[in-house]
Each structure stands twice: as C-alpha cells, then as structure tokens.
Amino acid sequence: MRAYGHETDGVTAVPEEAAHLVAAAKRLLDDEQTLASTADWMTEVAGPTVSGRPWSPTTLRRRLRNPAIAGLRENADGELVKGPAEPLIDRATFDALQELFRRNERGQGTKPKHVHYLSGGAGTCALCTRPLVPRSTANGGRGYVCEAEGCGKVRISAEPLDEYIGERVIARLSRPANLKRLAAVRDRLTADAEKAARFLDGLQGHKEELARAYGKRDLTLAEFKQAKAALDEERRAAMAWARRGKALEELPELTAEGLEAWWQDTAGREQRRTLVQLVVKEVRVGPATVRGSRRFDEGRFDIHWR
C-alpha cells in the first residue's frame, strides 16, 4: 500500500495530495488548529486515506512525521539526509512540525511504562487452557497468573512477556502477507462493531416494544424478565464491540513502516493492546522449568497467530 502524497514507488509526488498535506501543516502551524480538527478537515476536504478510512490524529501525525514528505531519509546514525522521495513540503515546515509534535508530547507527560497486552483472555495457561489473570506480584510488579480451580500452577512476569510479544507482532507485520491478513481481520471486526452500533441505536425501541407486550399481557412476568435479561446481555456485548470499533478507528494506515513508527512514538495503552490482539489469537504459557527462576524463558510459551 502506498503512502499518502507519493505514488506506489515511494518517490513520485501526487500533487493534489501534496497540496492537502501542505494545507494541513498550515492549519497546525499558522492557524493553531488541533491535530484532531485537522484530521477531520482532511477527511472532509481531501477525502479518506489511501486505505479508504477516515483520517485520525494518529494517521495524520504519523504521515507528517515521516521524513520522506520533505524529501529526506534517516541514515544509520539517525541523521536526516537527502532521500529519494520527491519533497511534498519544505524543510523548514517539516522541522516546525516536528517541534510542534515534541511540545505536544511533553505537555502530555510520560506514557505508562507497561501495558497488559494479553489481558481479557489472550493469555492462557498451557496446563488447563484457562485464561491467565493480571495480578500484582509480591515485589510490586505485575504478572499473569492462572487462578483456575485445581490448577494455579502458572505465573509469569507480565512486563518482559508483553514487551517480547509486542516486538514479535511488529516483526511479523513487516511482511506484506501478514499486513494483508491484518487488514482483513480489522475490516471484519469493524463491520461487527458497526453492526453493534446499529443495535445500540435501536435498543430503546426494543425495550419499549417489550414493555408494551408485557403491558398487553402478551408476556408473563417470567417471560418479560427473561427477554429483558437477554436484551441486557446483548447490550453489554454490543457496547464491548462498539468500544473495540472505536479503538480500531485509531489504528494507523497498515504499512510496515507506519505501524512501527506508530508503535514506538504515538500509540497509547489501548491502541497497542488492540493491535496485539488483532494479530495474536492466543499465547499459551507453561510453568517455569526451574521453580522460582526469574530468567525470561521463551520456551515457556507458544504464540498462536490469527
């Protein structure tokens, strides 16, 4: 998939798209508009991203942080030097944008150091197959623990495991075939989230219809309670899907370069967790081979990919 503003060769500029990026930079730097409002403006005026999705603050920031838009690249020493891509904006504008983003990040404070990527059932016990539960450890850290009755034999420090899983996910997504698979999973889950949103929009009507049926004595009290409980359960499930849909909207364009930069520079707690669980179906964790050992042992777990 090409990057917005350049053709598929990554070199040739697309003039109309370049003009929109220049205008977006002007809104941020001269008009002092927010990144969120500028992303909305891009969707309304420039149209969707190259993947056909609305612009999000994350997607726009990632594109404006890419040195290629100024005709630059990063060398092995981390220095910006002339690159092969045709510039879309001038160097002064690019530098001003980077300083703006740095100021904004400092204003937001430091991000939490640790994220539980495998909470919610993605991490399981290799012995009993039950989900591992995030818990505090004796030394104040965080871990994943099997609390299943009759088992409880697996526990592992969460931070090194999650860090390793995150690295494996980004490495896996460097391959085009896996990016394509991720896009298919994302689109399917987005469709489910949209379906859930439509259900929530019509939920009040369902409840009123149920109340009318009970009022007319078409339903007994027991039937009414049973139907209401079923609606409440559907509501909880739909709300979970709707929240997941919101997180999916905040993913960047699905390119290997974009995902890595987003992961390292801008992704938040829920965003990282969303990406991991889009790619990882399950991580089965076995017991420590040496009781009480603190050594990180990759042989303890098995990653099942989607």
TrEMBL record:
Gene3D superfamilies: Putative Large Serine Recombinase, Chain B, Domain 2
Domain Recombinase: start-end pairs: 3-107
Pfam families in UniProt: Recombinase
Top-level taxonomic group: Bacteria
Keyword terms, alphabetized: DNA recombination, DNA-binding
Matches recorded under PROSITE patterns: RECOMBINASE_DNA_BIND
Protein name according to UniProt: Recombinase domain-containing protein
